[in-house]
Amino acid sequence: MTQRIKGQEVRLSFTTPTGETEDMDYVLNFEWELDMEILSEEFLGQTAKEYDDIFHGVNGSVELQIPGPGFLTFQERVQARAQRREAANGVFTATASFAFPNGVRARVSFPNLFFGPIPVRTPGRSEYVNMGLTWSCSGIKRIL
Description:
Blueprint: E1 10-15, E2 21-24, E3 27-41, E4 50-65, H1 70-82, E5 93-99, E6 105-110, E7 114-115, E8 120-121, E9 130-137, E10 141-143
Antiparallel strand pairs: 1-2, 1-5, 3-4, 4-9, 5-6, 6-10, 7-9, 8-9
């Protein structure tokens, strides 16, 4: 029987430049992808293209509901680093933990994140406020 994993077995946390770990408890969705490019060349005298690939890094996104005012501090730290302020010379890291049904635990770490737009959405009177993050980094660590 396969050991597929459900979202309830995935935990996400961010480590801020100050070394504090912030668990994300109200994650609606989390996505990451290896940014790969296929290269192709055509040569005279050959009957098919030749292919290669190149790795550009990792891109990801997360959408979460906001449980408290800590999101404002998080935004402030991201903005401070982007504006090259003195106190912002640190690294943001995301870690996803996967607890498989057979007891195996694996982690994926995304070191040195750089963020894109950080929208905060207030969708309606009866809905929760949520925040989105898009990010990129140069590499990935898999801990099996």
